[in-house]
Amino acid sequence: MSKVKAKYDVIVIGSGPSAYTCAIRCAQLGLKVLCVDNTDINSTSGAFCNAGNVGMITLLESAKLYDTLLSDIDSHGVFAENVSLNLPKMILHKDKILDGISQQITKTFTEHKIDFINSNAKLIAPKIIELSSLHSPSQQIHAKFIILATESIPISIPCTPIDNEFILDSTAALSLNKLPKRLAILGAGVIGLELAAIWNRLGAETTLLEAQETFLGLSDNQISRQAYQIFTEQGLELRLGARVISTKILNKKVFIEYQDADGTHALRVDKLIVASGRKPNSERLSAPEANLLLDENGYVHVNENCRTNLPGVYAIGDLTLHGPMLSHKGMAEGVFVAEQIAGVIGSSVNYNIIPNVIYTEPEIAWIGQTEQALKAIGDPINIGTFPLSINHQPKSAVKSNGMIKVIACANTDKILGVHIIGCHASELIAQAVLAMEFSASSEDLARTIHSHPSSAEALREAALAIKNKGLNS
Ligand code: NAD
Known about the structure:
28% helix, Enolase-like, domain 1, 3 domains
């Protein structure tokens, strides 16, 4: 590490999706880049192992495959006998995928001559960072620009001390080598639901304990209601208004106490996963004398160009309060900042058009405004819906359910929101994103010819339904 003498144009702190995207774009634009991250490079996948939620999605796919083979595929004339689960192999498959991504990014870094240092980095002044690691003396490095991209970390709550043996964080929850018979998950947010979709499918009796009375409060109410119904039909035990207040480990079991409107209850499980939210990873990011402005929750203060209060210092991704905590938002900011620094005219980040996806089965995806938000502000709207049970039958292995909902302005017909629950929702939402990015009307979508049969034509059907012109509903 002491070899590092070069002066850099840009130092990126972090190695998650926002960080590596920014580093690559900076290098593509001719800037000399150093990327610093304190990830344990000897861990399963080394640097860049925090590749968004790829690990989660990989396990979900495996769990879905297993569940599909166990369900009603014999109606297709396909018989799978003696289907069994080799969990360590499934976890190994996930780790290999992550490893492949890590290697791919390392190769791209090498091709673009981006230096990478495995070390703690701290901003000590606008153009200076300090590197410190156990193995070498600390040193300072200068660059014209510094980009803070350390993403977020799980929020820990005192009543659920993580030991990663019985009480697990959301990362350890992706590496269980033995299927728990009974599993509880604290928090029915995005991460809790995705983890529940994995472990419930693999056969763990799964209970979700959610402190709030409402389920999936951020998504459209009609979609949340369907999601609740579908997930409970799948065997997920969803307890709303249930706040976990204490835990203890006894005889290799986790004893959980939670409170709801009826009082205090106890639950005994083999493992508890804590998915209580995430917070910006900013605690040790800057020295007090650097005077980096953070809010009371640790979010780095930035303007509309992702600039912090310090000259030449930017912050992107989960570190800031701009937009949701989503990898693709941070990656878009990474490109935006790189292009600003290089003086290239690029596009800014449109925070109103960022797709949200929950990778459950069925998936949930949405873009734009919900019906309840638009009604609350009194905007006149038209709504078209289409049930996916009609569309998906030829295209999915098992019987499909869910719906698509398109909301348009009653005066201009401009699309204001699209909400999907159903298989392929994460892919289907892309055409809604494109339509909204180009300010399309529901009629534009309704007139667009889609291939048949396909999942995509269901979105067109929902758009057609706005003017009661649905062909199949
Ligand atoms: P979240 O805030 O969405 O959900 C956490 C839930 O835990 C909340 O609903 C909260 O009420 C509940 N909770 C907290 N303390 C509790 C207690 N004592 N007892 C019971 N319930 C309790 O957080 P998350 O699911 O951890 O996700 C964090 C962030 O990461 C979100 O912004 C999410 O959008 C983002 N993320 C998104 C994706 C994706 O889009 N696929 C994937 C990963 C993360």
